[in-house]
């Protein structure tokens, strides 16, 4: 295994790697032209990257119009390393092992769990054990583990998880288990990073994750806007209804008490008298159940109001909705957009995430690869 993974990659080396990823296949001469580095630097950096097996020579290209030797083309070696990403939610854990281009090697999910302070480490290790039971041979092996947490995280500590309890020092516990870097990040932030890296062409987006609660991730040029105390994006805890329903955060009337999937399921199970999941919501909607339709309409209006306010604060290029219900009932989107008519929100694009995969996991992969390659504005 090549022992180069935990040092921060040198700046010019990262520029060359980024150019190689963007251009797919390129000659050394073109690398020099695009990167602005001189040919001698490009030559020595590409030699190092070839030795590290992060890039490969593919074929002999065509000679330029001026004649001369035919160039040898280079590409990024997307199979050079592996990345682990987990989404640890109150009642499920999902995980993927991927190559460094995001291609999935294996995936695991456990549902109907109750994650607690006592069992979280054991459950996480069980998922990682399953994911890595068959490990493909790669030059750099696993270069990082990123875990999405449904709550507030600072660099190393879990600060606040309203819907479940986790050990504050979870990262420290995990570091003791592995010889690769471990990252913890808020799940909505990761979903935004996943969109930025794998689907979106824009440099400025907000991704709204609607699950038990509602969180937003804000990305600009590949960088998450976390805020001074890493509380940015907590749109679910902005007050929608004065003196409304009590929220675990201490407020009354928070958005997520009215417009999250959790709130929708609670409301519908009370009025329909049965256990509600996203599958039942969609099934009843298709059957034209008016109670469900009215609840979804109200839900869309609330979300539209919230997105309108958020757009006025952050001025994004696009807002991406990450919701299993919106993905299955896209006709809810115009109801939501009908609330966005003001000067500061009418031009903001709103779109339902096109990815069926768990975006938090893709964001986790992105965060690990960003660190490994030292490329912040990574687009794969
Ligand atoms: Zn709240």
Automatic annotation (TrEMBL):
Species lineage: Bacteria, Bacillati, Bacillota, Bacilli, Lactobacillales
Keyword presence, RNA-binding: no
Signal sequence coordinates: none
CDD domains named among the record's database cross-references: ASKHA_ATPase_ROK_SaXylR-like
Protein name: ROK family protein
Single biological process term from Gene Ontology: D-xylose metabolic process
Record-linked SUPFAM superfamilies: Actin-like ATPase domain (SSF53067), Winged helix' DNA-binding domain (SSF46785)
Entry's family note: Belongs to the ROK (NagC/XylR) family.
Keywords: Carbohydrate metabolism, Xylose metabolism
Species annotation: Enterococcus aquimarinus
Function, in words: Transcriptional repressor of xylose-utilizing enzymes.
InterPro entries tied to this protein: ATPase_NBD (IPR043129), ROK (IPR000600), ROK_cs (IPR049874), WH-like_DNA-bd_sf (IPR036388), WH_DNA-bd_sf (IPR036390)
